Amino acid sequence: MEAVVVNLPSFPFLNATISSSPSSPTFRLGFRRFCVSLSAVKEVSVSLGHLTRPDFPILHQEVNGSKLVYLDNAATFQKPTAVLKALHNYYEAYNSNVHIGIHYLSAKATDEYELARKKVATFINAPDSTEIVFTRNATEAINLVAYSWGLSNLKPGNEIVLTIAEHHSAIVPWQMVAQKTGAVLKFVSSDENEVPDVEKLREMISKRTELVVVHHVSNVLGSVLPIEDIVIWAHEVGAKVLVDACQSVPHMVVYVQGLDADFLVASSHKMCEPTGIGSLFGKSNLLSAMPPFLADPDNGFSPFRWFELISDVFLDHSTYAEPPSCNCWSKYSIFCFLSWLILFLLFNWIRFEAGTPAIGETIGLGAAIDYLSGIGMQKIHDYEVSCNFCCLHFLWSWLIIYMKNCSVPNIWIYGPKPSENVHHAALCSFNVENIHPTDLVTFLDQQVA
Fold first, then answer.
1. Per-residue b or e along 111-149, where b marks 16 or more CB atoms closer than 10 Å to that residue's CB
2. Closest to 6 (Cα-Cα) out of 309, 186, 220
3. What DSSP string describes 210-239?
4. Residue 340: predicted pLDDT
5. Quick one: pLDDT at residue 401?
C-alpha cells in the first residue's frame, strides 16, 4: 500500500497532548479516534529547531514563493555547514588515497579516515573501532552480513525471523540467501497497535532460529521495538540478531553494548552526513570468522593485498596462498609478514573494505558525529519526544486548512497511537481517502511549500 511519509522533527508553536476528556475535540482519523487537547500558545524560549536551522545552508532559500520547510528527513537528512566544510577541506587540502601511500597527504587522509571510524564506535558505544566496517550504505551492510555470514552459517531448515515491517533492503537479501542455503524465512505480523507483535516474535523464536532481523525504529510506522528483550530471547536459543538502526542512531542515544546485538547497521546520510557511506557494527568474534565480501587482491601496497593473499588467478578459479603468502614473502620479506600479522590480529574490518573507499564522505561522517555530539543525542531525542504529540494534530490541521473546500476526507494514519506505554518516533505516515499519495505530495509541495 502506498502512503505519504512525513518526518515531523519539530513544531515548537504547538504544545499538544493526547486526551480522553469529553470536552476535548475528537477527530476521525482513519479507523481510530484521537482526542486532542491544545494548550494556549505561549511565548517560550527558542527551540532546538530554531537554534540549529541556521546551520543548514540549504534551508536558506525560498521554494515556490515560501521559505523552505523540509520534512523528508526519513529519506535523507540535510547537511550542516560543518560537514560541508569538512568535505570541502579534504578535497582542497589533503585529497589522497588511504592505507596505501606513505607521503604526507596519504598519511593525513588515512588518519582522518580512521579517526572517523573511532568516532562511529564512540557514538554507538561499540567496544572497539575494529568492530566498525564502512560500507556504501545500510543496504550494502545488510548484504555483507547476508552473503559473508549467512552463506557460511545457514543450513537447510534453519529459520530467519523477521517482521513484516522491515525495510525491503532487510528482506530481499535474506530471501536470496534462503534460496541458496535452504533456510526458511518466518515473518511476524502486526498487532492491534499496528506494530510488530512482540509476543508473537518471542513465540516464533525457537531452537531452529539462526538469525533474527529487526528494525530498531520503523521508517514507516514509527514504532520502536524492545531490542534488548529481543536479543535476550534470541541468544537464549543461540541465534544471532541483526538490527536495522537507520532510524534510531540519528535520533536517539544508541548503546550497542547495552543492546548486545550481534550486528547493527546504520545509514549515515540520515544523520547529517554525506551520501554514499554507511556503517556496520559486528561483534569481533563474528567478523573474524567471516570471509571477505568483496575481492580486491591487487591494490598496490594496500593491506587488502596482504590479507586476502591471492596466489594465482585463472579464468575459472583463483587459488589462495596460506599465510604468509610466498609471493608476498619474496617481495616484502619480514616487513610484509609483520604487517599481515598485525592486520590479521587487530583489524577485522580490512577484509570487508576492498578498493578505494568513500574517503571524503567518511571524513564528513566524522564531522557530522562531532556536530550531533556537540548538541547532544539525548537532547535531540528529548526534543523530538516533546514534539511527537503535536504530529497528529498538526497533520489534521494542515490538511483541513489547505484541502479543497476546507474539508478533509478520512485520513488514515499508520503506526501506533503515541502514549506512555507505546513508543512512537517523530515521523508520521498517512493516506488520504480517494487521493493518490503522489497527487497529495505534489499539491503540498507546489502550493503549500
1. ebbbebbbbbbebbebeebbbbbbbbbbbbbbbbbbbbb
2. 220
3. EEEEEESB-TTT-BB--HHHHHHHHHHTT-
4. 47
5. 56
**15 SS3 class:** coil
Distance, in Å, from the CA atom of 220 to the CA atom of 366, rounded to the nearest integer, reads: 28
Which residue type sits at 302?
S
At 108, list the grid cell. 593525513
d(CA 132, CA 122): 10
Q: 343 by DSSP, 3-state: which?
A: helix
- Cβ atoms 261, 225 nearer than 8 A: no
What are the angstrom distances between the C-alpha of 313 and each of 322, 341, 414?
A: 15, 23, 53
Picking from 287, 320, 309, 357, the residue whose alpha carbon sits closest to that of residue 144 is 287
| Predicted local distance difference test score (pLDDT) of residue 289 | 87
Q: Which residues contact 246 (CB under 8 A, 6 or more apart)?
A: 138, 167, 215, 219, 265, 266, 267, 270
Take residue 61 and report the three cell numbers written for it: 532559500
Q: Which residues pair with 413 in a beta bridge?
A: 430
Instruction: Return the residue matching grid coordinates 503506526.
Output: 415
- 126 forms beta bridges with none
3-state secondary structure of 123: helix
Residue 387: the pLDDT is 77
Q: Which residues of 56-81 are buried (b: 16+ CB within 10 A; e: fewer)?
A: beeeeeeeeeeeeeeeebbeebbbbe
pLDDT of residue 142: 95
The position carrying cell 541556521 is 54
Q: Which residues contact 222 (CB under 8 A, 6 or more apart)?
A: 415, 416, 424, 425, 426, 427, 428, 429
> If you write DSSP's letter for every residue of 327-346 in order, what string do you get?
HHHHHHHHHHHHHHHHHHHH
Grid coordinates standing for 413? 494514519
**Residue entry with cell 507483535:** 197
- Give the integer Cα–Cα distance in Å for 271 and 251: 8
Strands of 427-432's sheet, edge to edge?
A: 4-7, 427-432, 411-414
> Distance (Å, rounded) from C-alpha 390 to C-alpha 43?
17
Averaged over successive runs of 10 residues, the pLDDT of the chain (449 residues) comes to: 45 35 39 39 66 94 86 90 96 92 92 95 94 92 94 96 92 93 95 88 96 93 91 97 94 94 94 91 91 60 39 53 37 46 52 82 95 94 79 59 55 72 75 86 76
